[in-house]
Amino acid sequence: MEAFASHYSYWITVLLMAAGLYIMIARGNLVKKLIGLSIFQTSVYLLYIAPGKLIGGTAPILSEAYQLYSNPLPHVLILTAIVVGIATLALGLAIVVRIREAYGSIEEDEIVAADRADAGRGDGA
Amino acid sequence: MKREPVLRVIGKLLIPYMLMFALYVQFHGDFGPGGGFQAGVIAAASVIFYALIFGLPAARRVVPERLVETMVAFGAFLYMAVGFAGLALGGNYLDYFVLHANPVEGQHRGIFWVELGVLITVSGVMLKIFYMFAGRGRDPGAR
Amino acid sequence: MMAATVIAIIVQRNLFSVVVLAGVYSFLMATVLVALDAVDVAMTEASVGAGISTVLLLGALYLCGGEEAKPMARPWLPLVVTLVIVGALVYGTLGLPAFSDPMAPIHTHVVPRYLGQALAETGVPNVVTAVLASYRGYDTLGETVVVFTAGVGVIALLRRARRGREKST
């Protein structure tokens, strides 16, 4: 039970990571896959920031009234990661829009079937 | 949506405060949470809010496409220019200590210009992406 | 509560409600981050994740159609893969330091120098801004270039050809 209380934050992270991963591999809709990717990314933010917290500490803004600060280094890395994550999401959504205009659908099964049908026709013709 | 009086009034009340809040977050990033990224996103969000209420052509008149495209490139250019300024004044690339006679004052200057560059690029990119998504009509032949 | 939101996202098939649930999830994550003393990160996650992300997803849904996703016919293979990965990760986390352990390596290598010297060297009380803009300024330069590249990429992908509608590549 001791291990549960001290590692609880990691297990929440693993649970969210698993949920994001499951959405990405088990659902065929492209927009839903991108949302699963962003859930996966937020679980990684938790993975980095939770170990930096010190109980009794405060936010890492130096002032006279506080002595104990939580670790500022993961905050910097995750700030960059959040912005890069949204850049990825924007580019992914632009590609999904183009796929939709080219194939008429954003379901993975239909797109793969359309590609196979095209390849069959291309070889025969 | 611009015919709805409630939305118009609330929009006109809130948008100046949102822009002011973005500037506040930008310049108080030294003393509290904040900085270039948050401020850029909030500034872009205020223009997006204006576009949602008053329509995309009205937003395009207020913040033209050319200006947004220039902002996208100018912020990154400003950041790199600060780096080269450090090089020109005798230090390393992106060295802030040489920007002023007093090294701590040089740090302040360097951080100020760098965060400004980040603000311009982030708000420009977010706004440009919104313009591209919202301005593209739905394909009439697709499902 | 976050687990409940995520499970609802998995099960829901109407994409519009999935997007709204993703915004809810972002706000819950921002609250958790404030509880973990990460105020800068929480502000960024709230504004970016719940603000811009939702706007972009809604814009994409408008262009693609908000129809439901169809569930896979045999979902047990991804479920088994996910459970195996969960087992491996939980086994791995048992070796990590306990929550809020002051002697963990994350707290003892570089950070005491940043916390001690940031005010004296840069004159900026917010250590996160000092590290982001001054000590690790190169990383922030790279990040700004990444944002710029994303903007250029979206412009390149979504720009309509001016010459006519026959070729839209």
What does this structure look like?
The complex is a heterotrimer of chains A (125), B (143) and C (169). Chain A has a single domain (2-124), classed as Orthogonal Bundle (Helix Hairpins). Chain A has four helices and no strands. Chain A has helices at 2-26, 30-49, 73-103, 108-124. Chain B has one domain (5-135). The model of chain B has no long low-confidence stretch (mean pLDDT 86). In chain C, helix 2 runs antiparallel to helix 3. Chain C contains eight helices and no strands. Residues 162-169 of chain C have low confidence and may be disordered. Classes of the chains: A mainly alpha (125), B mainly alpha (143), C mainly alpha (169). Chains in contact: A-B, A-C, B-C.
How would the blueprint of this fold be written?
The complex is a heterotrimer of chains A (125), B (143) and C (169).
Chain A: H1 2-26, H2 30-49, H3 73-103, H4 108-124
Chain B: H1 5-27, H2 36-54, H3 56-62, H4 65-88, H5 103-135
Helix pairs in contact in B: 1-2, 2-3, 2-5, 4-5
Chain C: H1 2-11, H2 15-35, H3 39-64, H4 76-93, H5 105-108, H6 111-122, H7 127-135, H8 137-158
Helix pairs in contact in C: 1-2, 2-3, 6-7, 7-8
